[in-house]
Amino acid sequence: MTVTAPSSTRPGASSGEPFLVVEDLTVKFPTEDGQITAVQGLSYSVEKGKTLGIVGESGSGKSVSSMAVLGLHDTKSAKITGSIRIDGQEVVGLSESKMRKIRGRQVSMIFQDALAALHPFYKVGGQLAEAYRVHHPSASKREARRKAIEMLDRVGIPQPDRRADDFPHQFSGGMRQRAMIAMGLINDPSLIVADEPTTALDVTVQAQILDLLQDLQREFDSAIIMITHDLGVIAEMADDILVMYGGRGVEYGTAKDVLTRPQMPYTWGLLSSVPDVAGDTDAPLIPIPGNPPSLLKPPPGCAFNPRCLHKDKVAGGLCTSQMPELLESPTVPGHLKRCHLADPDAVYQAEVLPVIAPETLEENDPR
Amino acid sequence: MYAYIVKRLLSGVVVLFLVSFSVFALFWFGPSAPARPMCESKTSNHCTDDRLERFTEELGYNNNMFAEYGRYMGGIVTGRDVTISGQTTECPAPCFGLSYTTGKPVWDDMKDRLPATISVAVGGAFLYLIIGVPMGVAAARRRGTLADKALVSSFLVLSSVPYYLFALLTYLYVAVWWGVPGIGSPGYTPITENPAAWVSGLALAWICLGVFGCTQYTRYARGAMVEALSEDYIRTAKAKGLPTRTVVYKHGLRAALVPIVTIFGIDFGTLLAGTIFTEKIFDISGIGLWALNAIGDRDLPIVSATALFSAVVLIVSNLLVDIVYSALDPRVRLS
Questions:
Q1: Which domains does chain B have, with CATH numbers?
Q2: What transmembrane ranges does the database entry give (chain B) (predicted)?
Q3: Which of A159, A204, A335, B254 has the most C-beta neighbours closer than 10 Å?
Q4: What is the ipTM of this complex?
């Protein structure tokens, strides 16, 4: 399957391939009840200095796919096929020892819930220094510690030389996440995978962390993959957005296109379920009905069809019999969507927009 | 921290009072006259009612129980003179009284038996730790494989055999029938007298405790390790690019040690308090066997002393576990 990258990550004439290219990635796990296909036929790419937001609900495969980028799945049980190229190097099937040199060095990961993701028995500074020394074996302990303190300072932790000797539980939630980010950036990685980095934090701290990530991205020119279910975070951070559902990419385009001209009923559902801060406090939230699909026995046809409010607009029951391909939208160039709807723009304008944002309709009345 | 330790020791002393008083009261009110064993041993089993009454009077069982208990507890601290059949014996502190069967101060006998019990406990515990923990770690790393399943299920079978049967069979096969060289006839020789004999006499007891105990420790270590390896911080350690060995040992085992140390502290305390089957089968005159015989002889001073000893050992080992726990896990603060 060939997939056109959305316009913002389309490589320039001379720059060659984007830093990270994922092509037709499939991840399968055996379980007691049978084989689960957690990710299927997923393709995306991220360039240096750009941010890709991956959105989707629990079980949509967003974390599984990005853990595959770092080779963090148990090679004995997980079956990974397809291609993942980091700076041109194929990492699917790469040996553990070679993969280890990439992890934390070229690609690092920032996890959600830093309290659980930092080791409770080791000092914060020591954990940072360990991350530095493993990729700089010639560095002395003192150098590594100085580097750790420098990074803690860089992410805005006050008195970093003293706080380096604290244990993670002595940090506040926001500081722990900062320390986690400092650890992820200590080796100047070219790609940062941030897995829900702000989910466990309150909103004000969340905004600080996102600002910090953006500052650091500008400073280090790194690529970021931002995994989240929070569209607010995505709108703030992302250049491109990949929407995932049931282990597949269902919509992929520039952030502006996906947020303003979404082409797929699941994305509409996600947008509809975001509460509007400026809106009427009595306005009801609009949830997506139903539950995420079983990865063990996905529904026939489009994985979203049991929850789709618009499937009767497609003739011949195509939605329940045939999986739509991820194809370029006829109306928005470079924007990919996996949906049988013939004219999603019209449905969105007529049925979805009036419900979620009536005020924009009045402003941009096409008539 | 120090305030915590003092507080724990004080509450330990309260427990010791309760234990000693309970044992004392049980004998005092028991169905058999508490003076009868002494009477029988002094009169070659011709203990008539007159003589029993004389011993009861002499041993103080006609007095107020609380006053007698106070005298007993005072003796532990300061020592006292004990008069039996007109013969006064000096019983220096800590005085647990004179044995009703031998007439000697209980503490003298206890001092003789303690090294044997400590030798058995230390050797056995050392063996089961160094066998059990690495096996558990290895099994956890191979979780779900055939080797893991075979190990877990065979250890389950082994640990469901009663310990006394296991120890007896080991004794019969290894010492009696096979006559394995290096393992002499079991028994305790003080290490100060002859280290080689100390080892060869205790080897079988250690092996039995070690092999039997390591089945449990393999399971504890495996469980703790499986749990630790599934934690988020292990994924973080891998994502940092650390070598597998560092991930498993520095990050995984370090966390898994905490529950293992906790169980070990209590276990080791129990071992020190007496390993009755081991001592009986391998003919080691330690605390456990001594206590068992004393119960048969209704020898109150020995029973009280061994009960107190067990209580002290368990209180101290519990306290040590808590202190070690706080040293291992920086999140735990003693207060």
A1: 111-328 (1.10.3720.10)
A2: 9-29, 116-138, 150-176, 196-215, 255-277, 302-325
A3: A335
A4: 0.85
